[in-house]
Amino acid sequence: MQIVHIDMDMFFAAVEIRDNPELAEKPLIIGALPSERGVVATCSYEARKYGIRSAMSIKEAYRRCPHGIYMHPNGHKYVEASRQIRKIWDDYTDIAECISLDECFLDVTGSSHAFGGAENIGREIKRRVKDETALTCSVGIGYSMMSAKLASEEKKPDGFFQILTPQALRELIIDRSVRIIYGVGPQTAAQLDKIGIKNVRDIYNNRDAVIHLLGNHGRHIIDLADGIDNRVVCTPAKAQSLGREITFQHDIDDREYLKDALRLIARELSFQMRLDETFAKTITLKVTFKDMKKITRSKSDDATNKADVIFGTVCTLLDKVERRSIRLVGISLSGFADKDALQLTLFDDAAEIKKSKKLDDVTTNLQRKYGMNIVKSGSEMIAEKKIWE
Fold first, then answer.
1. Comparing C-alpha atoms, which of 321, 320, 319, 299 is closest to residue 310?
2. Parallel, antiparallel, or unpaired: how do β-strands 96-100 and 28-31 relate?
3. CA atoms of 377 and 1, how far apart (whole Å)
4. 140-150 b/e (C-beta count within 10 Å ≥ 16 → b)
5. Cβ–Cβ < 8 Å for 140, 5
6. What is the pTM assigned to this prediction?
7. Cα–Cα distance list, 357 to 364, 377, 380 (Å)
8. Cβ atoms within 10 A of the Cβ of 317, count?
9. Are the beta carbons of 229 and 143 closer than 8 angstroms?
């Protein structure tokens, strides 16, 4: 196999720095604000010098770096940047397994000859990502998924590295921590440490002990340490649902405030579906109450991707929910179709429908080019001011 692994460098932070160069070379932390409950989503390399990392509590991040710049994530901006990047990746193979918005495995075994080999593909992807998005990525070329992943991590940031044989992999990792092996997390590493196995060389020298301790999982770890990785890149099936949610910093009783939050979620989901050219038949309201009780309420109707229809439906569903303090609201869409189910009747104005569709197309094209926030209704601007400020 010939596998290319791409990992964008500090993706969320890099997008923010690209769009606001004044943030460059500063400790930037994306996630919750210091006054809120939450965690770090990602951070710049300058922030990482203070020991800040993804999933760290925002309170701990602030303790380590009180002078950092703290920002909420801008989800639609990152999704659009990811979309641009994936369009580049898609030019080289249709066998891709994307782990997240910013990380993907490409199997170029069948297509590499058309582009002068896997190395040329990797270098061309790096160049195009930088030229077309003003972002950088680290690229690894390998004979397996694990080797490609390790290769992309070897020279970060903005790196390029190849691991082309099992022998090259073994020589690279032999004196490194067991954590470098795929599937060896903190708990497994702690178990191995108890029997004196700290690095990969220890695995080679204590194979029977690893198997005795971990059974089949131990055998798999030994295979990976030997450079044997038979996993294949799998293009995931099309998602069966699309959802977003907002967790409030304080429990909410105000129904109008809750509807403003739902308005913003509906706008984001509508934008996502219009970019994907899909429509949803089922709209589901998600609610978590103060006591952590969770409920969902759904309605199925003609397929749509219009924000006002999604918003109107969930508002109707919310009005039927018991009135008590709410911690979280969300919307989930499912029952996807490739076109809307709207049918003209004798009483519909075909010209008005055509005009409306043309306006939708213009709006979508503007948002695709400049981001979701280029077009906002007055009610959406009011909702943003209430929810985000």
1. 299
2. unpaired
3. 50
4. bbbbbbbbbbb
5. yes
6. 0.67
7. 10, 17, 21
8. 20
9. no
Cβ of 332: how many Cβ atoms within 10 Å?
Answer: 20
Alpha carbons 237 and 321: distance in angstroms, whole number? 34
Secondary element (H or E) of residue 137: strand 137-142
For residue 184, the 8-state DSSP code is -
Rg (CA), the chain: 24
- 239 exposed, middle or buried (CB, 10 Å; 0-12, 13-18, 19+)? exposed
Task: Please classify residue 32 by burial: count the beta carbons closer than 10 Å to its beta carbon, then call 0-12 exposed, 13-18 middle and 19+ buried.
Answer: buried
Which of 253, 181, 169 shows the shortest CA–CA distance to 210?
181
Token digits of residue 148: 């490609």
- Tens of pLDDT, residue by residue over 322-372, are 999 998 999 999 998 876 544 444 444 545 545 555 656 666 665 555 555
Percent of the chain topping pLDDT 70: 86
Q: pLDDT tens digits for 363-384? A: 666 555 555 555 556 676 676 6
119-138 burial, b if ≥16 CB within 10 A, otherwise e? bebbebbbebbeeebebbbb
What is the rounded distance in angstroms from the CA atom of residue 76 to the CA atom of residue 388? 15
CA–centroid distance for 217 within its chain: 28
Token output for 313:
């439906």
Report which DSSP code applies to 143: S
Catalytic residue, chosen from 16, 80, 103, 268, is 103
Verify whether residue 245 is a known catalytic residue: no
